[in-house]
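Consider the following assembly input.
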Amino acid sequence: NAGVTQTPKFRILKIGQSMTLQCAQDMNHNYMYWYRQDPGMGLKLIYYSVGAGITDKGEVPNGYNVSRSTTEDFPLRLELAAPSQTSVYFCASSRTGSNYGYTFGSGTRLTVV
Amino acid sequence: SQKIEQNSEALNIQEGKTATLTCNYTNYSPAYLQWYRQDPGRGPVFLLLIRENEKEKRKERLKVTFDTTLKQSLFHITASQPADSATYLCALAGGTFGGGADGLTFGKGTHLIIQP
């Protein structure tokens, strides 16, 4: 099925470890986004990309990095994990931004202990 | 500062009635407003988009209104069913942290419960 695929679905990290959250879409969407969602809070934008080779910071970028080498993939890198990064992470894509609906992945639930 | 407000308390509606959810915003001039549905443990699913020059949009049992003067959107589900129970998110285009001029900023969502 076409859509946004996120891996892994669950992960437990120890403080100071690093990991990459994978996101891939097969809809040829130019725009891709990473959000985090904490309980009772809205989705907060971490990073976004408007096309391959172009990325920019969102509202909460500290502690994260991204790259966009292809249209399909938009991995999110956590270096030196901290308990404050415990959250559910969602990747999304859209054709050309907010004039089209976003397609979200099923999320990655990350716990940092 | 920019704010999007949705009723944080759960909304309980009897099956068959119309559910109405509210999204208010301040310090925004959004070109688009979107509504999403989110089920527990799942990613949000896009429902409807309405443009600033549109007053109303419909899709099956769903209706969205957008009043840029009141800075408010209303989301209606008619003939509600228990399967409509979920959290509904309002999202506005633009804003400081929406991902550039074309990005979306999300409200916290309203939890809707349709009781049989």
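Residues 59 and 113 of chain A are 24 Å apart (CA to CA). Ask yourself how this observation constrains the way the partners meet.
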